[in-house]
Design brief:
single chain, 314 residues, alpha/beta, Elongation Factor Tu (Ef-tu), domain 3, 2 domains, 10 helices, 26% strand, FMN adenylyltransferase activity, kinase, FAD_synthase
Amino acid sequence: MQRWRGLEEIPEDWGRSVVTIGSYDGVHRGHQLIIGRAVERARELGVPAVVVTFDPHPSEVVRPGSHPPLLAPHHRRAELMAELGVDALLILPFTAEFSRLAPADFVVKVLVDKLHARVVVEGPNFRFGHKAAGDVALLAELGSPYDYEVELVDLFVSGEAGGGAAFSSTLTRRLVAEGDVAGAAEILGRPHRVEGVVVRGAQRGRELGFPTANVETLPHTAIPADGVYAGWLHADGEQMPAAISVGTNPQFDGTTRTVEAYAIDRVGLDLYGQHVAVDFLAFVRGQQTFDSVDGLLVAIADDVKRCRELLERS
């Protein structure tokens, strides 16, 4: 898959294409449906499928300080889109100047002059241009003079976790924040993932006999609610069963919120300085304090046992 950052990186000889535009944070099942349809149309027409997205999130430029928690960094979104068959990913730097583009100017500048769109595939709530003034009706109206057609794809409806709402990144973020990682996985179509570099912490886990990888998460990452989770630690090309702790470590009067993963039954694992990923499968219990360190050890042993059982059943 080709990856471009900015319009200037698009090849001069780029021909017609099928395009879909959006933040696509998380590349959840609703996104997968839209992107999948764009890929399908591209294959039918014998042209490339292109996804257009933005960095930073538009809300951070329009309302500084309002950057939403991210479900997936751009490199992860690119991996997921490539798996769906996308041929090219265009990341547009979202600046104050870019945010002021009128909807018609956005269409000309991006879809017509650079990507030569033949078909644009979107969900029904797609908005674009200055103050999100453009909608799918305007997008379709502009398609006639600029020689492209618009196809709309209805979003999936989520299951019990979402209360019947349409699949959305906003809903997924809420479920993650509440610790409902199973509900989030239902929308994403896979476990929620947190990534970062393993750094040295207080090393109490090592002293207690349960050494953990202390993950320094990427900026704006959507981190689950404080507690213990069953999941997987991805490192060195391996997927390892893990017991994951999120929180401030109140047992030892901690104040910094961390994500720590214990690779179950692994001995002598040294991951310091490595970029790793942590997938959250199931919530085990909330963050607690105990009367003694011995009480904490009993709880950790029980957590590891429950995590092992959950992962073996998954």
